[in-house]
Specification:
6 helices, alpha+beta, 8-stranded antiparallel beta barrel, 282 residues, Alpha-Beta Plaits
Length: 282
């Protein structure tokens, strides 16, 4: 057992003993030193969404933003976790949605991810209080950048994008406070464009700290349709250009995943299996 003991949450995963030199990770990140595939560190991510109906349930989950952190520090299977709120509308807005909350996490493999989502006290308690919950199991295809100073999603070497299945895009950024107003002036255009795109299957905006820490999460039928949206000359492409020119973000993470599966339901079913309504592309 290799265990890293530092000033915040610690964890060890089974693997071959070795000597490592690494910087201390930030809060909510556990160093995973397992070597399941050819000596490489890999991970499986989960995004778990919970919908809470009624004032009491929403007050309860708001309190969980502090209480659940203590319990998740005891979840030895997780190499990374974050508790997040969500936005209203298409999700990419500064207005909070008090009904929908999320847990983003990384695990050493799919089996442990599925077991933890099913048996972890935090996940089980949130499900018991929620009107509805849905978890996506995600296999990292590519990732660059950091989240809170760490790189939580580690794909296998030369991991290709799935040729026929869905591809998931995750963008996480820490907005510089001095740039926040300009950033949020751009977001409504991006949000409307994503919502109008006929190819997007599912989308949501989540975040740790309102206005400053933001995550966009979207599911696309294939890599080509996602790339057309991201690299076009519309509001999203213009916003990316503005980010580069204006130094809006203090930290960025861009990750792509293939879908391993889902459990639970959202809005009465599985959003990924519903026929998509025809929309006029913006």
């Amino acid at each position: 057992m290799i265990t890293c003991l530092v000033q915040f949450t610690t964890i060890g995963f089974p693997g071959r003993k070795a000597s490592y030199s690494f910087p201390l990770p930030p809060n909510n990140v556990r160093l995973s030193l397992h070597h399941p595939v050819g000596g490489q560190i890999i991970s499986v991510a989960t995004l778990s969404l919970f919908r809470f109906d009624g004032a009491l349930a929403r007050l309860w989950v708001l309190g969980q933003m502090g209480a659940a952190r203590l319990r998740l520090r005891e979840e030895r299977r997780a190499s990374f976790w974050k508790l997040c709120g969500s936005g209203t509308g298409e999700g990419f807005t500064p207005r909070p949605n008090w009904a929908v909350w999320a847990i983003m996490a990384a695990w050493p493999d799919e089996a442990q991810a599925r077991a933890a989502v099913q048996t972890s006290p935090v996940f089980a308690r949130w499900r018991s209080k929620a009107a509805e919950s849905w978890t996506l199991f995600l296999d990292p295809v590519s990732a660059r950048g950091t989240w809170g100073g760490a790189a939580p999603f580690v794909p296998a070497a030369n991991s290709p994008a799935p040729p026929g299945g869905p591809i998931i895009a995750l963008t996480r950024a820490t907005v510089r406070p001095a740039r926040a107003l300009r950033f949020w002036n751009r977001v409504p255009d991006i949000s409307a464009t994503i919502g109008a795109d006929p190819n997007v299957i599912f989308k949501i905006g989540i975040g740790e700290v309102p206005l400053l820490h933001q995550v966009t999460f979207s599911v696309w039928p294939d890599a080509a349709s996602m790339a057309r949206f991201a690299r076009g000359n519309g509001p999203h492409g213009q916003a990316i250009a503005a980010v580069r020119a204006g130094d809006w973000f203090a930290e960025e993470l861009y990750a792509r995943f293939s879908l391993l599966g889902t459990v639970g339901s959202w809005e009465g079913g599985n959003p990924l299996s519903r026929p998509r309504p025809e929309k006029d592309a913006a």
